Each structure stands twice: as C-alpha cells, then as structure tokens.
TrEMBL record:
One of its GO terms (cellular component) is Golgi membrane. This is Hexosyltransferase. It comes from Polarella glacialis. Residues 1-29 form the signal peptide. Belongs to the glycosyltransferase 31 family. It is found in: Golgi apparatus membrane. Keywords: Glycosyltransferase, Golgi apparatus, Membrane, Signal, Signal-anchor, Transferase, Transmembrane, Transmembrane helix. Its EC number is 2.4.1.-. GO terms for molecular function: hexosyltransferase activity. It is a single-pass type II membrane protein. Its main location: Golgi. InterPro entries: Glyco_trans_31.
Amino acid sequence: MSSLCAAPRFCTPLAILATIHWVAQPCCCLRLGIMVTSRWAEHERRQTQRHAIHSCTPATGSGHDIELLFFMGDPHAEEEAAALREQAESGDMVQVGGPDTDPPVPRDATYVLDRPCARTFRLAHGTAWLAANRPEQDYVMYLDDDSFLNLPRLLFHLEHQATDRLAMGFVMETQLDWSSTHVCELCDPCEPCRNDTATLDFCAMFPDMSLGGCIMAVQNCQIFEDTEGDYTLARCVAVKHRAIARLAQYFGSTHAPRWMLGMGWVFGSRIVQYIGRNANRLKVRGAADVSLGFWLAPMEGVRFVSMNDGYFHDHPESKSIFARPCTDQSVLVHRMTPASWNAGFDAEKCELTCDGAGSIEA
C-alpha cells in the first residue's frame, strides 16, 4: 500500500486489489495557519503565544507545516515606535489596518458599533491576506491571544476531517432579540412567575417587552452589570432592550445562524477563500463571533464540528459559564492569565495543568 498526498489538500492511501479502492485514512501532512488577532498593547500575550506555539510544535511530529501570525490594526501614535520594533524583531506580524481597540463593552456581550469592530475587521481582512498570501494552507486556526492551544491534539482532530469546508469550534445558536420570550419558557412551573406581584409591577414599565423578555433582561443585568447606585436595574433593563433591538435591526434577524465562540475556531481552506474574496462586503460592525454565523450562512456545504464537550473551554479559574477543568480531551483553554500560564504550562512537555483539576498533555 502506498500513500499519496493528493493535490494540496488531504492524504489518502491508495490500495490496489482487484480494482482501485480509496480508503479514508488520517492525513499525514497538514498545512496549518494560526491566526491571532491582538491589540498592540498586548505585547506580553503575544510573547506568551510565541513561546507556547514554538514549544509545542516539535511535539506534533514531522510532516506538518505550522505558521503563527499576528494580525494587527493601526497602532495609536504613542505605540508606533514599539510597534515598528516588534514587527522588525518578530517577523510574524501583519498589519491589516482598522481600529486597534473598541469602546468598553461587557466581555460576553453581543454588540454593534457605529464603526467597524476592531477584531471583526481584523478577522475579515486578515483572512483576505491569508487567502491571497497563504493559499496552500489546508486549515486556519483562529486563536484568541489569551488561549492555550494543544497543537498535537488539534492536529489529531484535523487529520480526521477531510473537508475544506470545515467550521470547528464551540458551536452556538442564539437569539439576538429575546424581548418576546414567553415567561413559561423560563419558569417551570410557570404560575409563580406569572403571579409574582413585584415582577409584574416592575415589568409593567416595559410594555414593549413580554414578561419573559423582561425577566431575561433582569437576569442579564444581575449577572453582568453592577446595578447599584445611579445605574438602577430599571435603567439597565432599558439599555439591554435597546441594545438587542439594535442588534436585530443591524443583522436583519432576531436569531443568529450557527456561530463559534470567540475563544478560537478552525476554518477549512474553502471557507478561508470565501471570506477572503468577500472581506470588503461582510458585516464588520458587530461582535466578531456572532458575525461569523452571518458570514457563513450563505455558503453551501459548511461542515460544522462541535468542540463543546470539554474540547474547547475557558480556564476553570475564570468562573465563566464555559469554564471546565483541563482533561486529556482539552484542545483549547481560553481566558489564560499570566498567573495561569506561569503556574500550569510546561513548555518542555506541551502540557497545561489547570489548578490541579487535570492536565492537557501532548
């Protein structure tokens, strides 16, 4: 049996018996780009990523071609000198322009700005750069600059995904405008919520929202906002209502097509080329991860692969709803801090320990 690295895409062994048969086998020679969008101020994060990726690359074995690149916006005037030095020293930075940062927004919020969002713009135009300058790459790993990536484990998964239309990540399906949610979708049994006098009196201030929508807004405010002092709960609910209405208006839908959390995801080469060709036409004023769903929606044959079940997750110390302990299934760990890198990352072994809760080993 001989092995053919067919075209520039996927490897399949050729078995010659009475007739020719193609037998699906893992690929032996993947070309992987790692695209990190970063703010100029995050020099420490970039240095950490360089160290981690370069330390883990030898553990992937021979045959794979891996390239790490950082895609940057326009630096502020006071950052230009440092930016030029880092670009000259590192050789791994691509400046695609656009805003370097966004106005302050809650970390897990879905939002729309009056101008291009910094990361969304860099994703679109960075992908266009890759499509033009790295057309031979089979996959692109889009990585947040505070995520740990276990390269050997990622490549193991990619070796079994023989498609150039791959979209692999923590897959989400969400409502953009939940103001009409029925209360019985939230409360089981339903009657206590429908008959709660305090809730009814409060939500009567928002006649354009259903009772369920009002309760969702209240919960959202209590989880993500500080509603003490001048910023009252009522004001917070009103702000949330306006924000979700604006989202739905901008995207033209009350629901978002399937998308991937911003911690990191993988696109196959056909998707990279598609986004690259259309970068100047795509919506870039919305939050990056939700925008992905709208970018992919018109494309035929996208193969979504979920990494939700403990493969991609937040670091357990982050206390986010996506936090999980590290296990031997973990591929990507998001929301790393300098402390968690220092305490848990073993560069020699390409291993991450998450506060004693388990480890990722190459």
